[in-house]
């Protein structure tokens, strides 16, 4: 990577300042300084970087797209709520140098390098924080201050003993390597060392055969174990001599346990591992509500960044509210509210980016448009642009009709469309003029069908506007143009035609697999309560979308689990609002290559299924599964936000099961007083799961408070199906779903059937 590169830092279309950017010698820190004054403005750590976007993949860079080509532009995205850093390099070559270099440093395959760099950076950072008088040395008083800063309340005698052991020069201060020795003694993992020695004959190393025994007995690795052991030694053993002898040291063993291979999340499920040739209705689909909003529903900001964040998070179903704007240009915003507005053309441009796929075979995007959308407002140029994005339309073919009699209505059926056929495409969900078979067979003379579940004054207004000609055209030519355009846009709606839901019997008699109904969270809950099995059967052949109550003006979310329990595919959430609901969403869709599609269990894809989530005994289940979790220890847990100076957390771990009602449960450990640095619990929690296929497991760390509500520290959520048994680390996430390295939990997982 180049160092001292002159680039433009961009904050808006009119704010572009030149800055020198440089990667520090530690390979973990980047600082930048003003070209004019030479003064260092800011610095950030590589560990704070979540991803790097190439081209015009931010609202700011899109605003300067006509001035600067995409090859010179890139965006550095940080974890948490820190704003993006939008940069314009002097040339495409310089941009690629930085982009590729940053990717090398933040990619998971660089884990051993990152471990070493993060460790070295942490040691340096803690030394600088504790060295109050900046003399390059640290006395015992400064060490005591350091321990408070690191979330440790250690016995003074023990701290002094560690200090004296590290003070090899007997100067009464620590400097250089002495501080490194002190830090290593402070971070010694006794529970890991004990496990290491259980399998090591000499207590100093694991031979290849000893490592194989550990992998088979404890980690339950049963395929290619010897090859895996060799790979782990080559990848995580820091000593070249040990690698040459095919042995693993205690440091290498710890590095393996902290790696992706040692994570609780099965690495085989991090790639696209499920069958992607099923019909669309057989998948849970990551879905957002009012995607363009990044704040509340009434006065919040509308932004392209809402779409970018959702797409990068794996969302595959997005919402676009299109309205008439000034000068005939359509705009996107939450209609009849005070939210800000963004041009429709920018939304089209964003959705047209080819880089939103999270795998080599990106599944389709779905765009939803509620009843407030006015298709007449979309000019032909926009329609052409949208079609160029890859909107999917079928080949013209005559639909097959079921034979009359035997209770079958004469309803045309259409060939099932699969994800494999739809990859790289965009599906439009919305109202449709006429019937789908009219579009395939040729124009019909049926009146426009504009039905949707959101019946009310807005729909009536829309029906009035969408009548032939719509609105008050100034001429018959304009009226004809709008009529043609509305039909063209309607023709883009194929397999996701919005229809009203009037009951399961009505749907079986008259609806088609190509149609979709939208239900409010309240209506969905009533159907779950009154007809759970019928709801599951319905969702085995037709799509259902659930949306938040209109009362959620603060952009809060409902619990998506109860909707997934009956097989609802499109459970739309407010992605901008952190909390339990988005933790569950991220937990479910973190698997399968993070592609946004998760295959439903077989019993939810069967149209004759007997499954009812309210009564798991109603179907022939394979029997309960026992999940046993030993919560062993925690490492370097963060302090609670806005806590008092010197405050140290009292951490506890709560494990929650989210699934069918009978499986819902939670248990927690005792709290450890005044130790957020290396708390040890050693407690065992156990759960019985009747429907493990639908279960999500959430690990939550909280700061215990006996007088008020516990404070959130970190969490990690994953589907039960993705759990890897054995000794595992759980790398915690913040409230908004971003990583907080190096905070983690160390657990042992055992599963019995």
What is the strand and helix layout of this fold?
Elements: E1 5-12, E2 15-23, E3 29-34, E4 40-45, E5 49-54, H1 59-63, E6 73-78, E7 85-88, H2 92-106, H3 111-130, H4 140-149, H5 156-166, H6 177-186, H7 190-199, E8 205-206, H8 208-217, H9 225-236, H10 240-244, E9 248-249, H11 250-257, E10 283-288, H12 304-312, E11 317-319, E12 322-323, E13 331-332, E14 342-343, H13 344-351, E15 365-368, H14 380-388, E16 400-401, E17 412-413, H15 419-422, E18 426-429, H16 436-441, H17 457-466, H18 476-491, E19 497-498, H19 504-510, E20 515-520, H20 521-538, E21 543-547, H21 561-564, E22 570-573, H22 580-589, E23 597-599, E24 625-635, E25 651-658, E26 665-668, E27 680-689, E28 696-703, E29 711-719, E30 726-733, E31 739-752
Parallel strand pairs: 10-22, 11-15, 15-18, 19-20, 20-21, 21-22
Antiparallel strand pairs: 1-2, 1-7, 2-3, 3-4, 5-6, 6-7, 8-9, 10-23, 12-13, 13-14, 16-17, 24-27, 24-31, 25-26, 25-28, 28-29, 30-31
């Amino acid at each position: 990577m180049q160092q001292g590169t002159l680039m433009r830092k961009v904050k808006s279309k009119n704010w572009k300042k030149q800055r020198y950017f440089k990667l520090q010698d530690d390979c973990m820190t980047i600082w930048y300084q003003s070209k004019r004054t030479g003064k260092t403005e800011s610095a950030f750590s590589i560990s704070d970087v979540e991803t790097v976007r190439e081209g015009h993949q931010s609202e700011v860079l899109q605003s300067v797209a006509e001035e600067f080509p995409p090859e010179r532009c890139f965006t550095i995205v940080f974890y948490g709520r820190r704003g993006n850093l939008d940069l314009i390099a002097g040339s495409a070559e310089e941009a690629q140098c930085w982009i590729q270099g940053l990717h090398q440093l933040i990619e998971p395959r660089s884990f051993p390098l990152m471990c070493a760099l993060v460790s070295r950076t942490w040691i340096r950072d803690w030394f600088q924080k504790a060295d109050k008088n900046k003399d390059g040395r640290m006395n015992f008083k400064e060490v005591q201050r350091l321990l408070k800063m690191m979330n440790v309340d250690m016995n003074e005698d023990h701290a002094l003993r560690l200090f004296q052991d590290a003070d090899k020069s007997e100067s009464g201060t620590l400097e250089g390597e002495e501080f490194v020795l002190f830090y290593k003694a402070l971070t010694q993992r006794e529970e890991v060392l004990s496990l290491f020695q259980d399998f090591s004959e000499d207590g100093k190393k694991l031979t290849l055969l000893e490592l194989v025994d550990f992998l088979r007995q404890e980690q339950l690795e049963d395929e290619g174990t010897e090859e895996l052991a060799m790979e782990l030694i080559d990848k995580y053993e820091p000593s070249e001599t040990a690698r040459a002898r095919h042995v693993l040291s205690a440091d290498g063993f710890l590095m393996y346990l902290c790696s992706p291979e040692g994570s609780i999340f099965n690495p085989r499920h991090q790639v696209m591992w499920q069958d992607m040739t099923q019909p669309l209705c057989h998948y849970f689909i990551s879905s957002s509500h009012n995607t363009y909003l990044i704040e509340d529903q009434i006065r919040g900001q509308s932004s392209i960044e809402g779409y970018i964040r959702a797409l990068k998070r794996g969302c595959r179903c997005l919402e676009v509210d299109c309205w008439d704007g000034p000068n005939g240009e359509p705009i996107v915003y939450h209609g009849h509210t005070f939210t800000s507005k963004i041009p429709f053309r920018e939304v089209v441009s964003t959705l047209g980016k080819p880089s939103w796929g999270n795998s080599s075979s990106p599944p389709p995007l779905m765009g939803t448009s509620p009843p407030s959308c006015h298709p007449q407002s979309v000019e032909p140029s926009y329609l052409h642009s949208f079609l160029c994005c890859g909107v999917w339309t079928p080949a013209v073919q005559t639909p097959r009709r079921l034979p009359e009699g035997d209770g079958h209505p004469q309803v045309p059926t259409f060939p099932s469309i699969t994800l494999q056929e739809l990859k790289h495409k965009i599906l439009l969900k919305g109202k449709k003029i006429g019937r789908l078979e009219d579009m395939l067979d040729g124009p019909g003379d049926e009146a426009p069908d504009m039905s949707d579940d959101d019946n009310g004054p807005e729909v009536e207004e829309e029906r009035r506007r969408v009548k032939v000609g719509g609105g008050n055209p100034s001429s018959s030519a304009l009226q004809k143009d709008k009529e043609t355009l509305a039909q063209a846009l309607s023709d883009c709606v194929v397999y996701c035609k919005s229809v009203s839901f009037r009951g399961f019997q009505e749907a079986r008699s008259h609806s088609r697999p190509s149609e979709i109904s939208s239900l409010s969270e309240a209506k969905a809950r009533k159907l779950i309560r009154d007809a759970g099995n019928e709801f599951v059967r319905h969702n085995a052949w037709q799509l259902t979308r659930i949306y938040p109550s209109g009362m959620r003006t603060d952009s809060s979310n409902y619990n998506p689990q109860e909707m997934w329990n009956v097989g609802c595919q499109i459970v739309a959430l407010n992605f901008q609002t952190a909390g339990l609901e988005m933790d569950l969403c991220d937990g479910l869709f973190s698997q399968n290559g993070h592609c946004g599609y998760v295959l439903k269990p077989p019993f939810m894809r069967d149209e004759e299924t007997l499954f009812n989530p309210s009564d798991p005994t109603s179907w022939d289940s394979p029997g309960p599964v026992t999940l046993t979790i030993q919560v062993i220890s925690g490492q370097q847990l963060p302090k609670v936000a806005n806590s008092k100076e010197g405050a140290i957390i009292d951490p506890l771990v709560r494990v929650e099961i989210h699934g069918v009602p009978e499986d819902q449960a939670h248990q927690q450990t005792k709290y450890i007083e005044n130790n957020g640095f290396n708390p040890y619990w050693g407690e065992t929690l156990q759960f019985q799961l009747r429907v493990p296929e639908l279960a999500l497991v959430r690990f939550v760390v909280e700061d215990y408070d006996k007088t008020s509500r516990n404070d959130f520290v970190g969490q990690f959520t994953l589907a039960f199906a993705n759990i890897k048994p054995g000794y595992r680390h759980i790398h915690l996430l913040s409230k908004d779903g971003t990583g907080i390295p190096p905070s983690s939990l160390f657990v042992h997982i055992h599963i019995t059937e």
